[in-house]
């Protein structure tokens, strides 16, 4: 599964986003070390702060259902964006925690536009320098 294919999966998962308030539909696709793909999408709520980002839904589902597997990569994409979708600060913290939980093995973050064409790649640790540590 290459970056572009993972980005297209993320776009597919964006179809199940619940985003009636922002109108911004986001999908995420997590790739595990055995090739399994886990999907996520943003799930908004009328009480706005309770909404979840697509990345968070996907990463937490992967960690909840496949705790023994390592997350290799995550792609993020939105049909409503003409530029690559970049994870918000909170999701960067969640990615940093996933890296920590898998013994420091970094996660490839693939950011894509609405066509899965423009793709930007960074490692999770690069996206959150000087991460908070207890
Ligand atoms: N959103 C995501 O799902 N992921 C991101 O990386 C950025 C933002 C969602 C949150 C909210 O439902 C909508 O996009 C607009 O901010």
TrEMBL record:
InterPro entries: APOBEC/CMP_deaminase_Zn-bd, CMP_dCMP_dom, Cyt/Deoxycyt_deaminase, Cytidine_deaminase-like
An annotated Gene Ontology molecular function: identical protein binding
SUPFAM superfamilies: Cytidine deaminase-like
Signal peptide, first to last residue: none
EC numbers on record: 3.5.4.5
Pfam family, one: dCMP_cyt_deam_1
Protein family: Belongs to the cytidine and deoxycytidylate deaminase family.
Domain (CMP/dCMP-type deaminase): residue spans on this chain: 1-134
A GO biological process held by the record: nucleobase-containing small molecule metabolic process
Protein name: Cytidine deaminase
Enzyme class: hydrolase
Keyword list, A-Z: Hydrolase, Metal-binding, Zinc
Tagged with keyword Nucleotide-binding: no
Listed GO CC annotations: cytosol
